Amino acid sequence: MDLQNYTFVSEFVLQGLCTSRHLQKFFFILFSGLYVVIVMGNTIIVATVVSNSRLHSSPMYFLLGNLSFLDIWLASFATPKMIRDFLSDRKLISFGGCMSQIFFLHFVGGAEMVLLVSMAYDRYVAICKPLHYMTVMSRNKCIELVMLSWTIGFVHSISQVAFTVNLPYCGPNEISSFFCDVPLVIKLACMDTYILGILMISDSGLLSLSCFLLLLISYTVILINVRQRATGGASKALSTCSAHIMVVTLFFGPCIFIYVWPFSRFSVDKLLSVFYTIFTPLLNPLIYTLRNKEMKTAMRKLWKRHVTFQ
Known about the structure:
transmembrane; receptor; 3% strand; 12 helices; olfaction; single chain; mainly alpha
């Protein structure tokens, strides 16, 4: 194809969630409220962990605080624009803005996947090797696990953006979603991207699937160990692990469906995209706090301290 005969794309058109004006007004109110709850809920968790020395020194809560921090970013890379677009007739995004969304989606998403594996490892050590827990899960080890998750997320994201940004975009510019993602953007390039698409999407699919399998193995081993015990500690461990398993299922289910089977007719389904970018960050604080007495007690202390200070 002679690219000189085409005008290169400088912006993309997002189709959004729907075309109905009435539904868009309803979604504007709904997602505005959900976004505020997501940011406030996860911010409260981060503030509680940071302000409470007991929680901050606990490996589990240290990792949970980092998960909530990532959830704020996961909900923020596209949701504010989606909310604003509900009131716009033309939902435009610049080329640079589109690449930025891809970068932050895969950076934060990749980091969160690895962090969830780290949290499963933390529970494995706590339940299967309790006498060595504080030695194995030292503060330095926790920091290393967090830094590893950020590094893998960054490298994964750069690999996605580096190929996508250099493709020639000179024809159609409509993206059938409310944000930019690799499978949707590369098919707009004016060249054959089938092989490249398989390689890039396989990268995301491999990361999602490998992390999910590691989590599956970890929690299987944990549950086998818990089943062999009949103590109150085992019951508490089972409650904690069930919350983790629920979060893992909610987060990895849509991601695996999108990136392991990207060429099906359900490819990058809008409902799944909404689920892992909005509902997962919303459910994480609810699952971890409502089922955790220690976290709820620490939040009440933080609230009382704030009220007293006021």
